[in-house]
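This is your field. Have a critical look at the following sequence-structure pair:

***
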Amino acid sequence: MNDKSAPRPGGRSARIQAAVHQAVRALQQEQGRDGLTVPAIASRAGVTPSTIYRRWGDLAQLLADVAVEQLQPEQPPTDTGSFRSDLLAWLLQYFDEMSSSPGRAMLRDVLGTEGHAGAGKCDSFVRQQIEAIRERALARGESPVTADLIIRIVVAPLMYRILFASERPAAQAVEVLFEQVMNAGDT
């Protein structure tokens, strides 16, 4: 199956993707979402609208592709010296970012496409960050809980609140679920 949102490696294709993504971000910042049209993006990026349609299919798929790129972590989670403090620091930062207005917009873009283009990549990003924290803990001789348990007990319910209840989880809500997952690992 041909995934139109998947970037092709290197060369002209990479330059086009970079120019189109930059055009989307610039137009969003200047005009908001209402200013986003394929012709406007194509003009700003210096490509034809057909290039965008051929590569991404439609505006929703393009916005999802840009959102996934922006959701990709730029650096590994902070190393605070212990699994417990590393995980809590990451969770607090992650949910602060995801519940912000830009974070919610990116999540809507990813989930608002047919087949939820990019959702699997977002899951991979979360798992990679948690696994980086776990690997450091294992190297220190700690016994961290599994990524699946963290996602089930902490990430999933808080993401539900962000996406469906339009809540911004308070740090206290994150900490309560964090304690639940840490206690679940002790049993």
